[in-house]
Amino acid sequence: MHELLSSRSSEHYADVLHRTVDVLAARFRDTDRVFSGASREQLQALVDDVDLDGRPLGTDDALREVDELFVEHAVWFHHPDYAAHLNCPVAVPAVAAEAVLAAVNPSVDTYDQSTVGTLMERALVAWTARRIGFPHGDGIFTSGGTQSNLQALLLAREAALAGTTDRDGAMRRLVVLTTASSHFSVQKSALLLGLAADAVVPVPTDALGRMRADALAGALGAVAAVGRVPMVVVATAGTTDRGCLDPLAAIADACDAAGVWLHVDAAYGCGLLVSPTRRHLLDGIERARSVTVDFHKSFFQPVSSSALVVREPQDLQPVAWHADYLNPEDSDEPNQVDKSLQTTRRFDALKLWTTLRALGADRVGELFDDVLDLAARAEELVRDDDDLVLVGGTQLSTVLFRYQPVGLSDEHADRVVPLVRRVLLESGRAVVAKTVVDGRPCLKLTLLNPGSTVDDVARVLGLVRDAAAALVEGDDLADRGAEADEVAAVAAVAGAVAR
Ligand SMILES: *Cc1c(COP(=O)(O)O)cnc(C)c1O
């Protein structure tokens, strides 16, 4: 039996993997565009062409198809013209560790499925907890910040309901306080956890979208005054759009005074835990009761790699369920499934483990520092550009801006801004993001590539300017609205930008 990885197929495995890596390495060496620029219609046709019930191709041809279909049209997050979302280039030792994981294929649910892997994950969670400032903290690796936030809110809900006799009645009164800038997974978690439809209460923010601690104190009082119960305050250490941090220490003061669970969502800002120069931005995080960290954002780890960390180990208790076939109540083995929402679970910790052993935490922090420095320079470029207007200002590495040369109306600029993103994607020349801030659409660069230079950012901004100018000039969008016209305009300008 050759198909499955075993002692008998080890040479075949080595041969297939070596050749696969060689083909990929050539792609990394030779690909000079962030995206092929293929249209969705073209990509759909390529997918539709494949008959999943057709004659099997054999491993070599199947992998050739993967290379031509998927790798050829993948978005290259490590390319300097990629500046859209919170995706980082990945550390090479972590990629190697991912290959180890894929082959050994452990599951870190019970000790007897993972043995030393469980002990390594626990050591890495303890390391992360110490970096946060939880000397005896605990936690678990998760699939991402969304799952980490869900679990944090579940634990906070159970803490709030502890000892109640009327669970349903108590649940209807629970409230989650957070800002409009927090991640949407907070709202989604509230829904999944069965909280009331109006459970998420927005706390007022400052001009950069950061929670106002004085307003939080007021909101906590107002919630209690109407007979509702604050279940958790979710502070964000690195908002997804603006890259800003809520004032953690002042928020912790308000939470302590009211006896409320503080969850810090540091999915984006967790890289500051290892920053040689900016760790102080997280001051106060050690007063949280739970923290979300996304290593796949600011620790240069491959997707997925995230963790939920708690200050008090017993806070994880509510997710422990016992099954005779897996983790019986009387088991004296360390079963990670007792701390997780998942059962079968990837040993993602191995990737960060390998990275820390290979590069060291300081080096990872320096790389994150580099992108924060780059963002500061990028903001200067936007400020100095007559056609671009900086929106807000970042504490991490996002740059928000609008294309708005003198003479272009707000409404016209509103229509052009989102089209620019599509033009650049379809041209294959650059990938930027768009969002809405204070009701107005704007473009967003998320800089997470320490290899990118100021010149790279300037080139992307130049492409934005060219695309926007061509959109404004090529057709007076102010007079048009029809989607078909927009699609045609985008395609025409994308064609021009691609050249
Ligand atoms: C990205 C992000 C999340 C969600 O994390 P995933 O890993 O994408 O699930 C949560 N919170 C913040 C602040 C984020 O930026």
From TrEMBL:
GO terms for biological process: carboxylic acid metabolic process. The keyword Lyase applies. Its cofactor is pyridoxal 5'-phosphate. The keyword Lyase applies. GO terms for cellular component: cytoplasm. The modification N6-(pyridoxal phosphate)lysine is found at residue 297. Keywords: Decarboxylase, Lyase, Pyridoxal phosphate. InterPro entries: PyrdxlP-dep_de-COase, PyrdxlP-dep_Trfase, PyrdxlP-dep_Trfase_major, PyrdxlP-dep_Trfase_small. One of its GO terms (molecular function) is aromatic-L-amino-acid decarboxylase activity. It comes from the Bacteria. PANTHER family: CYSTEINE SULFINIC ACID DECARBOXYLASE (PTHR45677:SF8), GLUTAMATE DECARBOXYLASE-RELATED (PTHR45677). Belongs to the group II decarboxylase family. This is Pyridoxal-dependent decarboxylase.
